[in-house]
Design brief:
heterodimer; A: mainly beta; six-stranded mixed beta sheet; three-stranded antiparallel beta sheet; 0% helix; globular; B: mainly beta; four-stranded antiparallel beta sheet
Chain lengths: 107, 114
């Protein structure tokens, strides 16, 4: 069975501080992993996916198969980064989301 | 263009009644997903449609839940004999196909069972 774990329900950081949102997964095959974000009063939307290996809004995430992790990182947090962040694992015909981490950036 | 739409946006129903939730995906998207988001919980995957077919229905919480999709477009999620634990936000998403897995989410339907 596939599983996605986000150990922190809430992460508070000061503006300008580095951010790391943790995500660990369990899956027997080759995973396809994503980060989705939901800003206040907005729809859930894709932030980035591991296969594209791109940086979006300053965020990056590297898939570490050895540690089965896909942590989301940003070197300098901004107030507009405050949102709910969900890690997701996609396999054929099924998607598993983590419980989500609320990121609160303190001015 | 228009995004994913869902109706109703809010639904309050009495325990034991049936409810029907609707999702209109982005035109041309062949894949459609239903999720449930309960208070304090993550997104619970319910079902995935590729076209009109749902190969795996094991994510549906119980046999009171059913979903269908017609014409490769609109989908309805039906909950029979609603229970209080069914109260949640039901989200629908669509993607271009089952392999292009960037999902576009709808605004959700907030279901409250009293």
């Amino acid at each position: 069975a596939q599983r996605v774990t986000q150990p922190e329900k809430l992460l508070s950081v000061f503006k300008g501080a580095p951010v790391e949102l943790k995500c660990n997964y369990s899956y027997s095959g080759s995973p396809e992993l994503f980060w989705y974000v939901q800003y206040s009063r907005q729809r859930l939307q894709l932030l980035l996916r591991h296969i594209s290996r791109e940086s979006i809004k300053g965020f990056t995430a590297d898939l570490n198969k050895g540690e089965t992790s896909f942590h989301l990182k940003k070197p300098f947090a901004q107030e507009e980064d405050s949102a709910m962040y969900y890690c997701a694992l996609w396999s054929y015909q099924k998607v598993t989301f983590g419980i989500g981490t609320k990121l609160q950036v303190i001015p | 263009g228009a995004g994913v739409s869902q109706s109703p946006s809010n639904k309050v129903t009495e325990k034991g009644k049936d409810v029907e939730l609707r999702c209109d995906p982005i035109s041309g998207h062949t894949a459609l997903y239903w999720y449930r988001q309960s208070l304090g919980q993550g997104l619970e995957f319910l079902i995935y449609f590729q076209g009109n077919s749902a190969p795996d229905k094991s994510g549906l919480p119980s046999d009171r839940f059913s979903a269908e999709r017609t014409g490769g477009s609109v989908s309805t999620l039906t909950i029979q004999r609603t229970q209080q634990e069914d109260s949640a936000v039901y989200l629908c998403a669509s993607s271009l196909d089952g392999y292009d897995n960037e999902q576009y989410f709808g605004p959700g339907t907030r279901l409250t069972v009293t």
